[in-house]
Amino acid sequence: MELSEDQRNSSSYSPTKENKYLTKTNTDLNIDQQSMVETETLSDRHISIQSPLLSVETVRTTINDINYHKKLTTLSVITEFFPPDYAATGQLIEELVKQLEKKGIRIRVFTGQPGYAFTTAQAPALEQLGNIRVRRSRATQLWSDRIRGKAVNGILFTVRTFLHIIKNARKNDVFLLTSAPPFLSIAGYLTHLLLRFPYVCLIYDLYPDIAIALGVVSQKHWVAKLWWELNRRIWRASKGIIVLSPAMKERVVAICPEVADKVSVIHSWGDPELILPIAKEKNWFAKQHNLDSKFTVLYSGNMGRCHDLETILATAQQLQDEPIQFVCIGGGPKRESFIKDVTRLGLKNFLFLPYQDKSVLPYSLTACDLSLVSVESGLESLVAPSKLYPALAAGRPIATICPKDSYLRQLIADGKFGISIDNGESDTLSKFILKLKSDRQLAEKMGNAAREYLQSNFTPEIISKQYINVLEQAIN
């Protein structure tokens, strides 16, 4: 007699946090050793009872006394961006899968060809990095510097993802689907309907809400309504949802209340072993760009539509007669207009640099005296800037420019590593910069607090364990 699907999914068939099967002895159960065998099927383990003398109650007792816990052994990660691409999401995924590989998990990554920041040579279609197998779509990135081009790239990658899963998925696969591109999880949802593979959604940015907040589409538009409905269906069918901040969880639950128990908040991270505090006078990057003799304010990362650059510009304008250097490293939709504004105002205290290779980050992130992180007003529950965490590792004070109810303010309050400033409050930011410039002890104290806060909460080791917990819940 074999258990039905309903019996296997009932409360008597429950997972435990143990990493092995726990059973009573055959003597305790009065069952002959030959009377019970385990058989494995495509979806789960079944119990087959061969003895005709066993009663239904004995079977129930047996099942109640076997607590299953499946350990995560294989994971398929789907993301449009992955190194050598410069996208922060891709670099974070690379660090995550390397941590999971250390724990004995076999990883398969399906990704696209490079093209996020600027044109680079095509990466290998198939690459083996230890127990991490990276397969890249043959499709190249088209018009990646334009909104429509990015949308087309995302749609093409989503279609290729669907075909890839159909062709290459294996019976024990668990899929981790990122929100890069934002409609990628549709591919996971469709393959789940067809093949019943479990998937977990990793949400970096929440769409269509961001598009609505930026005025790209109206919330009454049929595209927004359809997108929300798809999100609800995708989230309901998922085995888990990972978001990057408590505010994002609140927004997801507000859209789809029935998934509240599935949503986990897992922050991004910074690697304190890769990024170490380096004094500017010993930092080749700082010397190369003449930053070692000036108080330097750094903005490093995407200059996108979700980031408040206007407050930074106004602050630099107020401090243009001070020996203070503003450095902006990266790219994004706002970069060119930002440079034009700096030129129009005749500001000489700005330095713009392109995205830096990962090997340069330990030096570029420490070639400053203060790091800036910003979020536009109205977007605090829709995005979570990953640039915060490497900045913490660098051991420098941090100023966040964000709305009053942003989760960034709570982190600042808990870690005491900087200051939170309202959008548009350039006067407050200017005063804080001048205070740090004149009080080196305060700057050092906040910098040390930043690194300590990261090491206690947001290292790759700490965060990877949280991912494993969510993913193992998915397969159980």
Features of this protein?
476 residues; alpha/beta; Rossmann fold; 8-stranded mixed β-sheet; 6-stranded parallel β-sheet; 18 helices; 16 strands; 39% helix
Structural features, described:
The protein is built from 18 helices and 16 strands. It has an 8-stranded mixed beta sheet with strand order 5-6-4-3-7-8-9-10, sandwiched between helices. It has a 6-stranded parallel beta sheet with strand order 13-12-11-14-15-16, with helices on both faces. Strands 1-2 form a two-stranded antiparallel sheet. By secondary structure, it is α/β, with parallel strands linked by helices. It is globular, with a radius of gyration of 25 Å.
Number of helices: 18
Largest sheet, spatial ordering of strands: 5-6-4-3-7-8-9-10
The number of distinct β-strands equals 16
Please identify the top-level CATH class of the largest domain: Alpha Beta
Per CATH, the superfamily of the largest domain is Glycogen Phosphorylase B
Enumerate the spans where pLDDT stays under 50 for 5 or more consecutive residues: 1-68
Radius of gyration: 25 Å
Shape: globular
Fraction in helix: 25-40%
In short:
By secondary structure, this protein is an alpha/beta fold.
Layout: helices, strands, pairs:
Blueprint: H1 5-9, H2 26-29, E1 36-40, E2 45-49, H3 56-64, E3 74-78, H4 88-102, E4 106-111, E5 126-129, E6 132-136, H5 147-168, E7 175-178, H6 185-195, E8 199-203, H7 209-213, H8 222-237, E9 240-243, H9 246-255, E10 263-265, H10 284-288, E11 295-300, H11 310-318, E12 324-329, H12 335-344, E13 350-353, H13 361-364, E14 370-374, H14 388-393, E15 398-401, H15 407-415, E16 418-421, H16 426-438, H17 440-457, H18 460-475
Parallel strand pairs: 3-4, 3-7, 4-6, 7-8, 8-9, 9-10, 11-12, 11-14, 12-13, 14-15, 15-16
Antiparallel strand pairs: 1-2, 5-6
